[in-house]
Amino acid sequence: MNINVKIAERPYTLIVDNEEDEERARKAVQYINDRLSEYRVRYSEKDVQDHLAMAAIQFVVRLVKLEKNSEVAEMNERLYRLNNQVSEFLVN
User: Fold this and answer.
1) How far is 76 from 70, CA to CA, in rounded Å?
2) Which segments of the chain does DSSP mark as H helices, in order?
3) pTM for the predicted model, two decimal places
């Protein structure tokens, strides 16, 4: 399914699989445009390309943090299971 969105006043057509993905895409576009608006005010001497680059960097930094947190949570879960297995082994 195709949806039309605007980022930095430019139209784009995105292909999404379902309504849930459409909602995510529209939310992402809103986040981007909100961030661009902030950067326009804060860094008025910069152009749209600079604002887009700064927004991209900010979002990817957040993504890297989330991935790191996910990896840590996964590792903690593995350690917890391993600890339980060792405890069970020692009890038996």
Assistant:
1) 10
2) 19-42, 48-91
3) 0.70
Contacts of 32 (CB under 8 A, 6+ apart): 7, 8, 55, 59
Rounded CA separation 39/53 (Å):
11
Helices 48-91 and 19-42: crossing angle in degrees, nearest 10, is 120
Please count the structural domains in the chain: 1
Q: Give the 3-state secondary structure of residue 44.
A: coil
Q: What is the mean pLDDT of each run of 10 residues along the chain (92 residues)?
A: 95 96 96 94 93 92 88 82 81 72
Please check whether residue 18 is in contact with residue 1, taking contact to mean a CB–CB distance below 8 angstroms: yes
User: CA 60 → CA 57, 87, 90, distances in Å?
Assistant: 5, 40, 44
